[in-house]
Design brief:
The chain is built from 18 helices and 48 strands. By secondary structure, the protein is an alpha+beta fold. It has four domains: 291 residues, Alpha-Beta Barrel (7-stranded beta/alpha barrel), CATH 3.20.110; 210 residues, Immunoglobulin-like, CATH 2.60.40.1180; 234 residues, Golgi alpha-mannosidase II, domain 4 (Beta-galactosidase, Chain A, domain 5); 110 residues, Immunoglobulin-like, CATH 2.60.40.1360. The strands form twelve sheets. The protein has a nine-stranded antiparallel β-sheet with strand order 25-26-27-28-39-34-33-30-31. Helix 7 links the parallel strand 4 and strand 5. The longest helix has 30 residues. The structure holds 2-acetamido-2-deoxy-beta-D-glucopyranose (2 copies) and zinc ion. One 2-acetamido-2-deoxy-beta-D-glucopyranose (NAG) binds next to loops. One 2-acetamido-2-deoxy-beta-D-glucopyranose binds next to helix 6.
Length: 994
């Protein structure tokens, strides 16, 4: 323990020296004396022999929920909710001005930035000063306080990076957040904790953990602990964690916000001062009670709540008195003062305690035995998909901008910001009011549309570099999810340009909605590519609002699209003579599949057998009744009535289609549930394209539609789900790793977990694994051995009374909303670990980072196009190792590019693929000439060598790893610039380019 501390101090001095040499210290606004009392140095002094009570004034400002982001900011629609963010920040600044002891924290950079831009220079100077003095502390600092169950790690990192970037550019070093403040997210992921540690954060504070877990932790004084956030990254991502005592609210009776109407502390009149004295006594007993559940002589009181401080002085003046009188009356025992979460964390760190640890996560969250917040894992499935599509396209836009040597612009900034908002814990979660969900969708649509300016211009530039003057439009098909695409439907000749945002050469089957009966597809070399036409299922043609003439999809295999590159195809409709209609169902066939045997049972269930493995699935469509009276499901909660799964009665039909490229089963279960099960010629996975809706509720039954895969695997009560699309976590049915849970009342809902990208079942005996990969976040479970189930869509009849005040009953075009998506089923033999891991990883990337379809309607032959256009572009000069992925490539500041490289595999996930790997950056990118490369923390807001996290001592038998000395600027050695990546590692670089 002692050894570790002194080692740390030595390192600190060493690195400090380095930082000075490299000029890493930020200059602040000239007018201010750089009285940098931000950070730990400026924390209020605690008193070792007293109970130190840290009052932390804060406001929880949702970036949209009951009102839209703009309605919250400007304070309109007060009849919905009295909430005005502009007043909050305005009046807090006025109150901070009055007394240097007062402190406040601010969290959501989306709002702070909006507010900042409306201030005059005087106010801006003052705010900078408050930040530099540590009186206004930035906590969290991401664009929004993201959800942790349904978000993808790439988007969490992106939206944090963008918030940090604005903060650093605007305020400098003192605005660099050191604390994760996830007070309202509905449960907490381990990946989020790992990401925070990699940002250089010293702690996470949160409020929502399972009620039983919380009770245990308070009893055992383990509400503060060290979270081991990644078995792959080890000790360096341990994160100190604080589960708050009283949600994130002020102690009852001590909320002095105008929204609370608690009586103020009146010290003038005689009655008033008696009342005040009584209140102080109550306060004193409250803090003793809280302290009895925590380890040190420090406690934190969150003095605030949702949209509090709209008239900040009311709150502050009463807190002034609370502090003064408590210290006057009980000053021998307690010391009450304004503080911040970072100062609180610092005090705990100085307490020299040995802390307990935790290695799992905080899902699912429940606030009592009937209330599991597992419905929102699936709520608003189309918004969840739209968000994922948005990230796919954002990465395409960022990469193309860099590869075509363009600088950052407002379209890209807007796109980043909208995606930041989408991560908010009432956005992607589906727990907002309908008009707010519509507002998010509108913004995302605008962001994607503006993103198209970027991509079209970039590809146009890359493809016509040698032919100036030619500027074609490269249009996106944003309605491919309903098999519609205006430019492919309405042109007889068009160019398809597929851009591959993945880091490996990628082959994919393209599906384009068309009207013709036969097509000729030529690749970039002019070689004819075999293709096949498939009918668009009738259920899809009937989707309300679908306005498309396409009746079939043209399918072909686009082979080896270069990583971070594109490949173009010339596609033309065959006309006249002997064009035969290829779209006929295969008669006389009772099953399809080459490596599989796929057939339909009389009851409408699909039977999928693997020919080369002892794996067999019965796939069925089912629903839970979400209830219509008390204890019903809602936007947040999943409360299946009697925990009973109902199967649909099958009154549909099915057809098989067979061809050289793909074989398909088109199956209709009933009026609103249908699916296509397909296997492509050169792919090992089975694709299930599900479609649900409009879900009828006129029978007065709320329905939560679930697909179930019942396999022959012996899973022995276990299954695996991903954490934000990255590491996998083991789940054990009816059990929690750190306490005994009784699940009698909600045996199904309590076993649901977020499935952000993947869910698996393993048969250890037979060494088989079945994985389901999805295209958007969903909830899922394994209720019986051998089974995986995933909730696809939900339409409900009751609000769950957690604030949203609306029934989750999505409609579009006058009917229930239709959702359509895919699952990829991958069966693997675990005797070939590398093969199994690689298959799943490429399936996951294929869903999250799809090659993007750009269409250019033309009137030219292949040769004519080829003459004037480059039909293949490679963004990488050489292939990266198979376990490496370019997580981020985006324009940064003038002359700079932001790059993140990640190792895709976990330590035990594979063999060769799980080894550490080296990448030479120097000539990696085709269009970039690298001048200098400096490594930063994961959030790109601090040079890596400047990162010094607080050290915490834990109960452990493990040998401590030696702290590695980080050197931020990558050296060039023998003409190479090598980056080492260990399993699951992400490294972030700012590259200066020539
Ligand atoms: C304080 O205000 C809250 C919110 O309005 C209310 O629930 C609580 O009962 C009040 N407590 C006292 C002691 O006035
Ligand atoms: C933070 O901002 C300062 C001032 O603009 C800048 O000098 C510094 O390079 C930034 N830090 C990082 C890591 O980008
Ligand atoms: Zn919230």
């Amino acid at each position: 323990m002692a050894v570790q501390h002194s080692l740390f101090r030595v390192l600190l001095t060493l690195c400090y020296g380095l930082a000075v040499i490299q000029g890493g210290i930020v200059r602040i606004n000239d007018e201010e004396k750089p009285a940098l009392t931000c950070g730990y140095a400026g924390c209020p002094k605690t008193q070792p022999d007293k109970l130190n009570v840290h009052l932390v004034p804060h406001s929880h400002d949702d970036v949209g929920w009951l009102k839209t982001i703009d309605q919250y900011f400007y304070g309109s629609r007060q009849e919905i909710q009295i909430a005005n963010v502009q007043s909050i920040i305005d009046t807090v600044i006025q109150s901070l001005r009055k007394d240097p002891q007062r402190r406040f924290i601010y969290v959501e950079t989306a709002y702070l930035w909006k507010w900042w831009n409306l201030q005059d220079a005087e106010v801006q100077r003052e705010v900078r000063k408050f930040i530099n003095e540590g009186r206004l502390e930035i906590i969290g600092g991401a664009w929004s306080m993201n959800d942790e169950a349904t978000t993808h790690y790439q988007s969490i990192i992106d939206q944090s990076t963008w918030g940090f970037r604005r903060l650093n550019d605007t305020f400098g070093e003192c605005a660099r957040p050191k604390i994760g403040w996830q007070i309202d997210s509905f449960g907490h992921s381990r990946e989020q904790a790992s990401i925070f540690a990699q940002f250089g954060f010293d702690a996470i504070f949160f409020a929502r953990l399972d009620w039983e877990d919380k009770a245990h932790r308070l009893n055992e004084k383990t509400a503060e602990f060290v979270w081991k956030s990644s078995p792959n990254l080890g000790e360096k991502v341990n994160l100190f964690s604080v589960a708050l005592y009283n949600h994130y609210s002020a102690p009852s009776g001590f909320c002095f916000d105008i929204l609370c109407r608690n009586r103020t502390l009146d010290d003038q009149s005689e009655n008033g001062s008696k009342y005040t004295e009584r209140k102080i006594k109550d306060f004193y007993s409250y803090i003793l009670r809280q302290a009895s559940h925590y380890q040190t002589n420090n406690i934190i009181l969150t003095m605030g709540d949702d949209f509090h401080y709209q008239q900040a002085e009311n709150y502050f003046s009463n807190m002034d008195k609370l502090i003064r009188y408590t210290n006057e009356l009980y000053g021998k025992e307690v010391n009450v003062f304004y503080s911040t979460p970072s100062c609180y964390a610092k005090s705990l760190n100085e307490a020299n305690k040995t802390w307990t640890t935790k290695s799992d996560d905080f899902f699912p969250y429940s606030h009592n035995e009937r209330s599991f917040w597992t419905g929102y894992y699936t709520s608003r499935p189309t918004l969840k998909y739209f968000e994922r599509l948005g990230n796919n396209f954002l990465q395409v836009a960022k990469q193309l901008k860099v590869l075509s040597n363009q600088t950052d612009d407002e379209d890209l900034q807007f796109f980043r910001e909208v995606m930041g908002v989408m991560q908010h814990h009432d956005a992607i979660t589906g727990t907002e009011k309908q008009h707010v969900a519509d507002d998010y969708a509108k913004f995302l649509h605008e962001a994607i549309t503006r993103g198209e300016n970027i991509t079209s211009k970039s590809i146009s530039q890359l493809s016509t570099q040698e032919h100036p003057g030619k500027q074609e439009a490269f249009k996106s098909c944003l309605l491919l999810n309903i098999s519609a695409c205006e430019p492919t439907e309405n042109s007889t000749i068009f160019i398809l340009t597929l851009y591959n945002p993945q880091s490996q050469p990628t082959s994919t089957y393209v599906r384009l909605p068309v009207v013709g009966k036969g097509y000729s597809v030529k690749d970039h070399l002019g070689i004819d590519v075999p293709n096949q036409l498939l009918p668009i299922p009738g259920s899809v043609s009937k989707i309300p609002g679908r306005n498309s003439s396409a009746s079939r999809e043209l399918v072909f295999r686009a082979a080896d699209i270069p990583p971070l590159g594109y490949q173009s195809y010339h596609i033309s409709e065959k006309v006249g003579e002997n064009v035969t209609d290829e779209v006929t169902p295969a008669a006389e066939v009772s099953s399809i599949g080459r490596n599989h045997n796929i057939s339909v049972h009389d009851n409408g269930n699909v039977i999928i057998e693997w020919k080369n493995q002892d794996l067999r699935i019965i796939q069925s469509m089912n629903y839970y009744d979400g209830g219509k009276v008390f204890f019903s499901s809602g936007a947040y909660l999943f409360r299946p009535q009697n925990s009973t799964l109902h199967s649909f009665s099958y009154n549909g039909s099915f057809r098989f289609y067979k061809g050289a490229l793909v074989e398909e089963l088109h199956l209709t279960i009933n009026d609103y549930v249908s699916e296509v099960v397909r296997v492509y010629d050169q792919e090992d996975k089975v694709e299930v394209e599900w479609m649900v809706g409009p879900i009828p509720v006129n029978d007065d039954v709320a329905k939560e539609v679930v697909v179930k895969y019942s396999s022959n695997l012996e899973s022995k009560g276990c299954f695996y789900t991903d954490s934000n699309g990255r590491e996998m976590l083991k789940r054990v049915r009816n059990s929690r790793p750190t306490w005994n849970i009784s699940m009698l009342l909600e045996p199904v809902a309590a076993n649901y977990y977020p499935v952000t990208t993947k869910m698996s079942l393993v048969d250890e005996g037979r060494k088989l694994r079945l994985s389901v990969l999805n295209d958007r976040a969903q909830g899922g479970s394994s209720i019986n051995d051998g089974e995986l189930e995933v909730m696809l869509h939900r339409r409900l009849l009751r609000d769950d009374r957690l604030g949203v005040g609306e029934v989750l009953n999505e409609e579009a075009f006058g009917a229930g909303l239709v959702a359509r998506g895919v699952h990829h089923l991958v069966g693997s033999n675990l005797t070939d670990l590398d093969g199994a891991a690689a298959k799943e990883k490429s399936a996951a990337k294929g869903l999250a980072m799809r090659p993007w379809v750009f269409i250019t309607p033309v009137n030219v032959t292949f040769a004519e196009w080829k003459n004037n256009h480059r039909m293949q572009f490679k963004g990488l000069n050489k292939n990266l190792p198979r376990n490496v992925h370019v997580l981020t490539l985006e324009p940064w500041k003038e002359g700079q590019v932001l790059l993140r490289l990640e190792h895709l595999f976990e330590i035990a996930e594979a063999k060769d693929l799980s080894k550490a790997v080296e990448v030479n950056l120097l000539d990696l990118f085709a269009n970039l000439v690298i001048k200098e490369v400096r490594e930063t923390t994961l959030g790109a807001n601090q040079w890596i060598e400047d990162m010094h996290r607080l050290k915490w001592v834990i109960h452990t038998n493990e040998v401590h790893e030696e702290l590695e000395k980080q050197n931020g600027t990558l050296p060039v050695v023998n003409g190479t610039m090598v980056v080492l990546l260990r399993p699951m590692e992400i490294r972030t670089f700012i590259i200066s380019i020539k």
